[in-house]
Amino acid sequence: MRAISLQPTTNIPLKNLTLTLSIFFLAIISCQARAVDTHFPNLVGSNSVTVTMTVSGDLPEWMAVNVKKAGLRELAIEENIKATRDAVQKWKEERKTNSTAKYTPAKSSSRDLDNVKWIPFATNMLVDLGPGDGKRDLLFGFRYKGESRCLHWSGSGVVVSTDMTLIVITEPAQHVTSQP
User: Fold this and answer.
1) Taking the complete model, does pTM exceed 0.85, yes or no?
2) Model pLDDT, residue 29
3) Between 20 and 133, whose confidence is greater?
4) Partners of 159 in beta bridges
């Protein structure tokens, strides 16, 4: 019977591996997760909504919100897709006669998030939803110390219904009033 010797297949010394793992775990421990949860009702009876922020980890220095009527964002995305396809088609045509032609990306027709107003971070914010009833998409961005731009935008929707009706129940006679 022949003895089988189990040898490691790598030549990394144990000290280097230990040092590498130690540095890796220290880096993970020193990195704090950052998250900001936004809380607001999904139905409001006026053209403004109070948003409450709950922070986990690092505190942002700046915040911004982008409000759009629902459907407008989808149109802007479709316009950008068409512009990108047109730019690719133009580049392909130019490559037929010029082998060194470089692709020039389409300019985005919707730069909603480039023009937002940044304000110092606060845990409460009153957001103007604009005139009229209907659904609004709210996107929130947060910048942390040392950041010149927002790395992640997130949000949700809210419905504005300014003609919310008062429901009065007349039977039974306990005079119960409810407002949705």
Assistant:
1) no
2) 47
3) 133
4) 43, 135
State the DSSP H helix or E strand holding residue 76, giving kind and residue range, or none if neither.
helix 72-97
How far is it, in rounded angstroms, from Cα 135 to Cα 137? 7
Q: Are strands 43-44 and 153-160 parallel, antiparallel or unpaired?
A: parallel
Do 121 and 142 form a contact (C-beta atoms < 8 A)?
A: yes
Q: What is the C-alpha to C-alpha distance for residues 82 and 75, in angstroms, rounded to an integer?
A: 11
- What one-letter code names the amino acid at 174? Q
Per DSSP bridges, beta strands 167-168 and 124-128 are unpaired
The average pLDDT across 71-95 equals 75
Question: By the 8 A CB rule, do 106 and 86 touch?
Answer: yes
pLDDT in tens, 22-73: 665 555 544 556 889 999 999 999 999 999 999 988 899 999 999 988 766 5
Which range among 6-10, 143-147, 170-174 has the greatest average pLDDT?
A: 143-147
The tokens describing 178, both together, are 């409810």
Concatenating the DSSP letter of every residue in 82-118 gives: HHHHHHHHHHHHHHHH-TT----PPPPS--GGGSPPP
Mean pLDDT of the chain: 78
For 132, the token pair is 């009229």
